[in-house]
Amino acid sequence: MLDGWGIKTQKDIKDSSVFIAGAGVGTIRISISWHCLTKLFQIGMNGRVAFIKVRETPCLKCYFPESPPKGVFSVLGATPGVIGTLQALEALKYFSHDGKVLKGSLLVWSGSDMSFRTFRGHQDSECPSCGTRITED
Fold first, then answer.
1. Which helix (H) or strand (E) holds 89?
2. Do strands 46-50 and 115-120 pair parallel, antiparallel, or not at all (unpaired)?
3. 51 with 103: CB under 8 angstroms?
């Protein structure tokens, strides 16, 4: 479909994994929005942060015993920035000995409603990665 502004909306959006429109005119924005919604973009707007210290905290395998699904997942561009900033803050707190790190906890951020939840982790003694049965060579 070629609209009045010369944009092949259906084809452009169908072939895109990301579509950013800076159009200021209402009709073109509505057209682009409708086509994006019909494509049903699935974007990730959440992330997780954990502070892991070997032999003292649960490892990622303890938090997530199942392997993640295979495939490519789209995330909203700001999401990695938010999570990366939180991870950097954890590192700064650890090295400066200032503040309380997320030791043994998993912080989950939801960008869709800007909420944070914290879950307590538990180290599995049978974990092949960090369990108490692991010995040093």
1. helix 78-96
2. unpaired
3. yes
Residue 116 — φ and ψ, nearest 5°?
-120, 140
Contact 39, 71 (CB under 8 A): no
86-123 confidence digits (pLDDT tens): 999 999 999 999 999 999 999 999 998 999 999 999 88
- The amino acid present at 13, given as its one-letter code, is I
Nearest alpha-carbon partner for 83 in 108, 52, 53? 108
Residue 32's CB: how many other CB atoms inside 10 A?
20
Q: Residue length, the chain?
A: 137
CA atoms within a 13 Å half-sphere pointing along the CA-CB vector of 107: 20
Order of strands across the sheet that contains 115-120:
46-50, 105-110, 115-120
pTM over 0.70: no
